[in-house]
Please model this.
Amino acid sequence: MKTRNLFLTVPMMIFILIGMISCKDSSVVYRKYTANVPQYMTYDEMRKPVKSTAGFAIQTAGKIYIQGKYLFVNEKYKGIHVFDNSNPKTPLNIAFLNIPGNVDLAVRDNYLYADNYVDLIVLDISNLNSPLEVARIKNIFPYTIPETNETYPISGIDQTQGVISGWLVQDITEEVQDNGSLPYYYYDKGIGAVMLNGSSGTPSQTVGIGGSMARFIINGDQFYGLNQTNLQVINITDPTNPVAGSKIEMSRMVETVFIDGTNLFVGTQTGMLIYDVSAPASPVYKSEYNHFQSCDPVVVQDNYAYVTLRAGNRCGNWQNVMEVIDLTNLLSPVLVKSYTMTEPYGLGIDNKTLFVCDGQAGLKIYNATDPLRIDQNMIKQYTDIKALDVIPYSNVMIMIAENGIYQYDYTDLQDIRLLSIIPIGVVI
Model:
């Protein structure tokens, strides 16, 4: 459950002074207010072995990930649903991996890498009915703060008690400071950002593909994980003994990762960073492209990057657009076109076919042969769904929407066919 540092966002003063009452000592006064009081899970409880249960209906869907015949769907903060997707017409819900605090994942061979609150765990999933934890790197991720009821402030947090598993709204009585001032509280909803995790087209049977807003990605024998303002590199040559490598400070709030060849593209709240990963263990900064503050999923194909910027989210953006950036000169990316959108989220591209999840405006499919005339070459639009993210691979498109996970066959772009829908409850 990765959220942003509690002290990085815009301060929000939300105490309401209900009353001041005196105690036996008339020099001491108190204030009473309602707050979100943290509920803790101990570190020992958090680090219990991961259990597998029979598959059940998705209630709160997060990230999606495909590897080989398996479709993985994160149940935000709770674990991972596993579907046998051998036949996309009839996906089979076969297991649920109970991983408290989980938001992101990546898979290589039979090993699944997942966040377990502040830890990174490695599971051998060769037997999905009995996953085996083969490695754990403790405290590799920042301490996490789950979403709160925005109406109330956050009460004091004590990290020594464990990780925060939820909140309880309670009335608090507290001694007023000598100056009688009311403190500011910082908060962040911690919405997971979901990016085409690897190259487009048919996925490797070794390394899987994630959606366009993923923060985990595997490059050869290196695992990359974004958290807050840095990129953590971990050597996974031996998955039973992962070794934390360099931590690259990016001085921005990082959101998403995408690899195209030997280039790593990092979406941040204020732009896109480009790194050379020809030596996977040692990413080297190349250049950057800056824009107004916004969360920005990005995908890349044929020297063009496609970036969506959405208004009204926690990143502070005021516009809804998809930008096209010319990467011919990677040392100097250039904006060449900006398309107006309604509410853009994730996107994906496969062999000149661009899929854009435009929120309430639905899923838009374009012929991107000419990146400067995309709006003139729409192939299809589905307007009856709130589209959030998409993975196109091997002529099958997996799209996560507000009410379900949709799979389409786009072998014939003039006759795109719905294959199946996996219903879900609420998407965060």
